[in-house]
């Protein structure tokens, strides 16, 4: 039996945790309810925007890793990358979290 939580439960829990701490969370794209991958955009008041994706680790686990940081002089490249990810996997979830030190919430999401 797969011990992984359904994607919609993970997303809901992540948003609730951020909002409970005074931040804001929003689903930008709904993915496959149970098994969709989750892409997390973290920001604080529109600054320091990062993209987090689950990546395989050497021990076999899959943890969220920051794969992109937005360069404000090259903002279009960041947006285009996310658009390509969304097109390549229409079943993925895209979630935005706006709170200070948002990576602490991403780190708590289970594999």
Describe this structure in words.
The protein contains 3 helices and 5 strands. It is an alpha+beta fold and 111 residues long. It has a single domain (7-106), classed as hypothetical protein tt1805, CATH 3.40.1530.20. A 5-stranded mixed sheet has the order 1-5-2-3-4, sandwiched between helices. The longest helix is centred in the first third of the chain and has 14 residues, at 7-20. 21% of the residues are buried. The model has no long low-confidence stretch (mean pLDDT 88).
Name its key features:
single chain; 111 residues; alpha+beta; hypothetical protein tt1805; 5-stranded mixed beta sheet; 3 helices; 5 strands; 29% helix
Order of helices and strands: HEEEEHEH
Separation of the first and last Cα atoms: 14 Å
Question: What's the total number of strands?
Answer: 5
Strand order of the largest sheet: 1-5-2-3-4
Provide the domain count: 1
Any idea what the radius of gyration is?
14 Å
Oligomer: single chain
CATH superfamily: Protein of unknown function (DUF1491)
Main sheet: strands, sense, barrel: 5 strands, mixed
CATH C-level class: Alpha Beta
Low-confidence stretches: none
- Mean of the pLDDT scores? 88
Beta-strand fraction estimate? 25-35%
Alpha-beta classification = alpha+beta
Q: Per CATH, which architecture? A: 3-Layer(aba) Sandwich
């Amino acid at each position: 039996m797969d011990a992984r939580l359904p994607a919609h439960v993970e997303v809901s829990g992540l948003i609730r945790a951020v909002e409970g701490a005074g931040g804001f969370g929003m689903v930008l794209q709904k993915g496959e309810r149970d098994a969709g991958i989750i892409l997390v955009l973290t920001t604080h008041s529109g600054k320091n925007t990062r993209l987090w994706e689950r990546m395989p680790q050497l021990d076999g686990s899959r943890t969220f890793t920051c794969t992109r940081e937005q360069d404000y002089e090259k903002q279009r490249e960041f947006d285009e990358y996310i658009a390509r990810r969304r097109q390549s996997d229409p079943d993925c979830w895209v979630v935005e979290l706006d709170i200070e030190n948002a990576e602490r919430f991403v780190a708590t999401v289970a594999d």
